[in-house]
Write a structure and sequence with these properties.
This protein is α+β, with helices and mostly antiparallel strands and about 120 residues long. About 15% of the residues lie in helices and about 40% in strands. It contains 3 helices and 7 strands, in the order ααββββββαβ. Strands 2-1-5-6-7-4-3 form a 7-stranded antiparallel sheet. The radius of gyration is 14 Å and the shape is globular. The chain starts with a helix and ends with a strand.
Length: about 120
């Protein structure tokens, strides 16, 4: 229900921090959608994957892939990729810094424990 609501004229009010992300599953080729919290920094959107070790959706974005995002009620196309702190601490640190502008406690997280999804708007 929240996914539908974020696409309506009410989306701009709710969508300041919540987005709908649509991506394609690697194995199934099926479209999947989820609602997540995001931070926008210009033409880049950062999504922090909470409890990444328990989540699987972000693994579909290990390689750069097209996604659809609904931000503040508007659909935008983007190219997204998962940024794993253990593998790319510098880029993950940039994502954490951007995310911490809206969610300050995120700045205290150790980079090695974080997975971010970076979506570059097209």
């Amino acid at each position: 229900m929240l996914r539908r609501l974020l696409r309506t004229p009410l989306g701009p009010g709710l969508g300041r921090s919540l987005a709908v992300v649509r991506y394609t599953g690697l194995r199934t080729g099926a479209p999947h959608e989820l609602v997540c919290q995001y931070v926008r920094n210009g033409e880049r959107v950062w999504i922090m994957v909470g409890q990444a070790d328990r989540k699987t959706w972000w693994r579909n974005l290990r390689a750069r892939a097209p996604v659809d995002l609904w931000l503040a009620g508007r659909r935008v196309r983007a190219a997204a990729v998962a940024v794993v702190g253990l593998e790319d601490p510098e880029e993950c640190g940039r994502g954490i810094a951007s995310y911490a502008t809206r969610v300050p406690r995120a700045g205290a997280l150790p980079v090695s424990d974080v997975v971010m999804v970076r979506a570059d708007l097209l």
